[in-house]
Amino acid sequence: MSAETSVPRPRESDVDISDSALFKGMLSEAEFAFAFFDADSRIQRVNDVFSDVVNVPAERMVGRQPVEVLAADLSQIITHAVQAVIETDAPVTEGRVRVRSAEGDTRHWSLSFSPVHDDAGELRAIALVGLDVTESRQTEEALRRSEERYRSLVEAQSQLVWITSPTGAVVEDAPQWRAITGQGLEEYLANGWLEVVHPEERQQTEEAWREALRGRLTDQLGAAALRTARLQGATAMLAEALTVEQVVQVIIDVGRTALAADRSAVALLDTDRAALKLINGEGILEASGATGDEIPLSHSNVMTMAVNSRRPVFAESPESLKAQLLEAGGDEEVLAGFLAHGDERAWVGLPLLAAGRALGALRFSFTRPQKISQEDGVFLEALAGQCALAVERATLFEREHRTAETLQRSLLPDRLPVVKGLVLAQRFRSGSRHVQVGGDWYDAFVLQDGRVAAVVGDVMGKGVKAAAGMGRIRNAMRALALTNPPPAAVLTGLDRVFEATEEEEQVTTLAYMVVEPVTGEGTLALAGHPPPVLVSPQGTAILCDAEPGTPLGWPTSRRQFRFVVPPGHTAVLYSDGLVENRKRGLDAGLAELCSVVTEAPPEVVSSPHMLLDFLVDRMLSGYEQDDDVTALAIHVPPATKSD
């Protein structure tokens, strides 16, 4: 045996790998996976670790090729590597192999394939050595996520506001700071912002902070600085809130932190019903006796008084509340019951006014009497003004966003075809940072020969122009596919259509495949689009390595590739919004997509609908969605005995 192999040379010339007793003795205690393949790629020997990794008994593997006994994705990797060693007579390493164990855990392995020669220099076998690198991979993943969090911290915004007492002690929450640093509320209130400063910079930063406190903060300016910082913080958070739900959450956070309120409520005005509709009332029992989500303006409480009078209502004690409500025509018996059974002792009602028009009201309450100074009143009115602008903007956004999303969905298929031997699923999630219709689209339909065509495309841009382009390309693709379905032919035809109907600066990409039900045999062509991912029943992911091609309309010779979805597997086509955003590049997104697949439970992997939900939720988690997300799954059910 030559020294060109990683397998140790036996000390005695009459010893070889065909000796089963010797083989078992050498490898029974080994912590690595080991296997021998002959020149025909057939498995000759394996150790117990390898058998455990692939979850196949050793006796079932010996004498067979990997494709006959191993999972499709793993057998493809091993067969390709063994063949490469045979052809090149050189070692091959596969550093990214994911395998799901019998217990359902996902393990990461590094596989090395080496040629084994006899004394005459002839290739005798191929040796596989596998090392479990799960822990190192997890460490790398944790480091990568940590780096992404740090990048988010730097890029999120140029200025943040947090509030301390004049002595530097943390006395109020800072939701924006915690959202970026990952600190919990209790952790932040206990240790403050310095807790997240790097240990090497901690002492220097703390000394600079203390010096600033001694030199710049005084008790005389403390109260004014706090109010200014509170209003700045609230304004910044409200500026980022797009929906009414997000605005309400900001208002509640401000009430609990900046005002130290025990309860917060937001109500919007329904002018047709002359009533306030509670958006988030935290289970409050109003002094008017109203207990539902709707409070008629004819009932007297701090919110209806604020809306009716267009002025703030401050009740610093139960006596003050009672006097104001009775003056407004409130029911004394109901009021007495409210004060007797409730624990609230001070109240603030603020009208939400936009150009003098009432939009709703805010309600803050306290379980102790609350002295409200003139300066506090000015601050609260300014806060209410900012909240009103945010509510008006969010209401307009939601209405326009619903209209745009309805338009875009009307351009997509109402339903996917139902085909025996194939399960199709789709997910579309409109981007949250725009109110215009986007250019993402998907389609699936049955061809004349019974095969199924599936496509996901992306017309870059927003608005009616992108939607019109999407409609033209989608209709043209259907017509071409039904006439001449091979993917290369369809893309060639689309290039001609694109040149005739679309502008040169318009960029359109798509992934188009034709698949045979039951067998999963198919062909694929890409036009500048991200590659499909193939998910195995064991929960591993393989990115298609087909040539990506160029966007439609670019001069090129279109090619198609064999793309098989074996029974039990699922192919996922998707738009770039799933894997790419402002903080995550395409390569990092594709790597994360494969990593997320390995984390899916078995019941999710076996269901294309659940799989798409899992992938979309996990891929968008922690990132701000700034583009449409479209995904289409093609699942070939596993063969049954009746088949």
From TrEMBL:
GO MF annotation terms: isomerase activity; phosphatase activity
One Pfam entry name: PAS_4
Residues annotated as domain PAS: 146-216
Keyword tags: Hydrolase, Isomerase
CDD domains: PAS (cd00130)
UniProt keyword Isomerase present: yes
Start and end residues of each PAC domain: 93-145
Keyword Hydrolase set for record: yes
InterPro entries: Bact_Sigma-Reg, GAF, GAF-like_dom_sf, PAS, PAS-assoc_C, PAS-like_dom_sf, PAS_4, PPM-type-like_dom_sf
Protein name in UniProt: Peptidylprolyl isomerase
Top-level taxon in the UniProt lineage: Bacteria
Signal peptide location: none
